[in-house]
Amino acid sequence: MTLTIDASVGGATSNSSALTIVHLHGPCSPLHSPHAGAPPPPSHAEILERDQSRANSIHRKTSTTSPDPTPTSKQAAASLPAHTGISLGTLNYVVTVGLGTPSRPYTVVFDTGSDLSWVQCSPCRAAGGCYEQQDPLFDPSQSSTYAAVACSEADCDLLDADTGSCSTDGDSRCRYKVLYGDDSNTYGDLARDTLTLSGNDKLYGFVFGCGEENSGLFGHADGLLGLGRESVSLPSQGAAIGYGPGFTYCLPSSSANGYLSLGAASSPAANAVFTPMVTRMDTPSFYYLDLIGIKVARRPLNFPATTFAVSGGGTVIDSGTVITRLPRRAYEALRSAFVREMVNRNYRRAPALSILDTCYDLTTGHGGKAGAAAAAADVPRVELDFAGGASVVLDAAGVLYVAKATQACLAFASTGDDTSIAILGNTQQKTFAVVYDVANKRIGFAPKACS
Questions:
Q1: What is the CATH number assigned to the segment(s) 4-42+76-266?
Q2: Catalytic residue at 418?
Q3: Which residue of the set 51, 189, 222, 318 is catalytic?
Q4: pTM score
Q5: Separation between Cα atoms, residue 161 and residue 120, nearest integer Å
């Protein structure tokens, strides 16, 4: 793989870069379309149904074999603005990167549970072969630095046997296909081109997928930025040529900006607390950590000490899952304690919402605006305890999923059994700086970190 950095122009910091994160459906999203005729954002029920598909996919991937947990193992960096993806038809978070020469902007979902980055490419393989996106498709013929990867090249070996194959068209192109397990998929050529991060930070020879057939739950985003742990992911490719082997993000509320920092720009905040990063050898793409307990109103919940044991599955931290999933007994203990505290606060119960079964009416004394009600609500303190002494106290936005002021739900759900892995979703990560310190084998959390 021939991949190089150029951070020498525009005052960029060598070996560092940052991107802005926004919510896919939020007003700050570049894909927000308030004009007449624009597709409406998905309903809360649709968002939660899609989220269940995502969780089901992760559970299928992590339940095929017995786990073999081992610990995982300051350099260059890049930082990108990050946004919520509300306007794009998914409750994920998006960043805008440049691709090709000349560089053109593409807004992509970033995903810690995926390795291969890809964009939709022109021409699509067949009519209906690409889903609708707001921006123009990436056209390889318009980039002077685009090159398809051949089967004989080492870059083709970055794909595993389930993902990569050789073209049957007689041209020996390296082809990829990724099935996400929720009816989403992408298929096309493995390729190299110049990836532009913040400012003028460029990664030459970045390996990505040029998707000719793509479908599924990507909203109107242009593709996906893979932040997983395999060698084809953006952090791994960057680390191979001088970027630090880690990254940090802060996921904002739907009306604000966050950031995604790569490499040295992801140095931890002074107030971050850390827990060891864990690897399961059967699913090495995922980032695992060791959740050992939960407190509600400062009181520890009562469930077996082995509930979150890595030897029994462990806990994945995932940027693409919205609602945190807990094993059945842990969820039932959390729900019981939460209900008790909400009764003490005189909140009225509200109807369940899709997978969320514990909902309340927050309107008393707080008006009828959902955001204002959630911010002012007297929500029980919920605390997540991790190995190594790290304790993360959630704010109201991390405890409640607010559909409207009269329907705010406990933002956790059960896996339905006691053997499936727990998933720490993005609702509980919001407004924290989440530090993936790969070099030091740890994951950190710093509160109130988004700008």
A1: 2.40.70.10
A2: no
A3: 318
A4: 0.86
A5: 22
